[in-house]
């Protein structure tokens, strides 16, 4: 019975394998191989030794590498090896799954003594088990190669940082020395031979491009590249000037859109122009590897230089001064017009020199000459521009012309650029050319990121305002479709612009920390400089200079972000909600306190301080709390209770221990109460929790104006009642609902006591309203001939005809 069941199962397994074969052989259809399992095994058997051989070769090349270019190439090869190993492992996984499925169909081998299987089934099970073992081993080997390549990439990064550290710390000689200019006056024979060989390859490629077979295409690409590079941006500006006033809504979005379009058009036209020029050579079948690599690097360098030029043209906006984003006066903008173009040109020209030096493997003298000259020209450009701006600004003041209002941030940027340029020049003069080159490109990268961030933030904010504005077409559609009022549209614009700015800030931070041109990060640079001083860090505290600088930057950036976010919540976002003023102030204060705690924790983490090693601090704090800090802690906890339970909030009128006034601020330790004379009383938070507090505005925002008067016994109470109600009803601050009322308080020998009560909108209006009512009531009583109760006078007779009056 069991044997008869095994044959149909075997046929079913073979049929399923035949049905799955076309799907498992899609990768081999292009090469004409049949959909069988054996070619895949053969490919794995040949691919694994090749991958292992590449890994061993990379390890040998790493041990001999010395330059940054070599380390960069080795790191790229390691990452490619990781990707190929992962790809092979992914390709082997379905085959292992298929073999396991076939084994599951066959079932387990029968126990000894039971019915035996046919020789075909035994052979197939053995073959499948061998395939499973082989595939499992191959997948494990592939993963091991991937892990080894990834570890090698990490080692390469560390060696690369060490090599760059040594290079930056090296004093190669001043630019005023004879050694620096030797590549110009006494060129190295090997350098001349290498550059000559590269020039010969370029000349050969140029001749081949103009051969009869490729001449037509070369001419077309050359004319197209020149046309796009020379006239492309101007050709795009004309239709854009026509589109902007007709398609975009009025407002600031037009100028930010124009600035972004100018930057993008400049970058694309110059970049596409260079791509077409390089394609003239790269499309040739016999192009040398040097020319192919140089063409790729040249395109990247062109895009980088074009972005710098485009940002300068867009931010200065000399063609459209009224649409200029930064507040720069026209004379200053015209003075700075050539500097971004010159800066981009210097970067492009000397970037080509650096790429050629790295490509042909030029000597150290030639490499240092190119690095030093590029750093010198960029530093001079960055130093001359602020000097010319200051000279033009002084000239404008002398002639009585109005200059732009400079902000603190603009002045700080101006100072940082000048100081950095001075540091670069100083490093060149004393001989630290690699350090000067590194700082130069760090300055360029940071400037590029900051300018791009400034432009994109304006674009995002203006875009959100234009989309959600009730006067624009999109705002009207949102308003009618979602039944929103103007307040919700304004709230959405504020929220989305904040999200956009936050995302841009995060991307800018990542870009800054990733460094420039694949060299290193600013943090690593300062760690290298610290190592040059010979310090290995405060190993006892696990704090090193680089970590300390990271902590300081984290503290400064965190404090700035927290202040900006708090200002945005307090002034822009929360006022557009339905929250009352007290709740808004409580949320802002609570957010600020939590933010300060997070910043402190992040700063300590950046320092490398582990929380489990702070037991001595906790012990010291416990002793301090027990003796002198308990009041501070008690007030701090009370402040948190006030912010969460909100028995009192900002704006409430409270009275505590004889002090009555408005709560202006709830701080961490104490609460500020402003009195009626505008003075401020500082009350500890613990008193607001532990003592009786009268909150006049907590349950009801209305105030009660009550006046109690004593009249003689011979008055008409009804007449006086009507007169008092008339005085209250005529006053504009007295509410109609609840209506004013007069109550008969007391009847005594001294007279009749009447109390009149009326309600006003706020308890803060009671004092002034009561004063106005007293003036009016006294005037009405005198007009009606009604007097208030007077003090009785008694005359006592004494001997010697002396009278004593007793009141």
TrEMBL record:
Protein name (database record): Potassium efflux system protein/small-conductance mechanosensitive channel
UniProt xrefs under InterPro entries: DUF3772, LSM_dom_sf, MS_channel_1st, MS_channel_C, MscS-like_channel, MscS_beta-dom_sf, MscS_channel_2nd, MscS_channel_C_sf
Similarity comment text for this entry: Belongs to the MscS (TC 1.A.23) family.
One Pfam family linked to the record: MS_channel_3rd
Gene Ontology CC annotations of this record: plasma membrane
Domain Mechanosensitive ion channel transmembrane helices 2/3, chain residue ranges per copy: 589-630
Subcellular localization(s) per the UniProt record: Cell membrane
One term of GO molecular function: mechanosensitive monoatomic ion channel activity
Highest rank taxon of the organism: Bacteria
Organism: Buttiauxella brennerae ATCC 51605
Domain Mechanosensitive ion channel MscS C-terminal: 706-787
Domain (Mechanosensitive ion channel MscS) ranges: 632-697
UniProt KW keywords: Cell membrane, Coiled coil, Membrane, Signal, Transmembrane, Transmembrane helix
Residue stretches in coiled coil: 41-68
Spans traversing the lipid bilayer: 219-236, 257-282, 302-320, 332-353, 368-389, 409-433, 445-468, 488-513, 543-562, 583-608
UniProt xrefs under Gene3D superfamilies: 1.10.287.1260, 2.30.30.60, 3.30.70.100
Residue ranges constituting the DUF3772 domain according to the UniProt record: 140-201
Signal peptide: 1-27
Keyword Signal: yes
Topology of the protein relative to the lipid bilayer: Multi-pass membrane protein
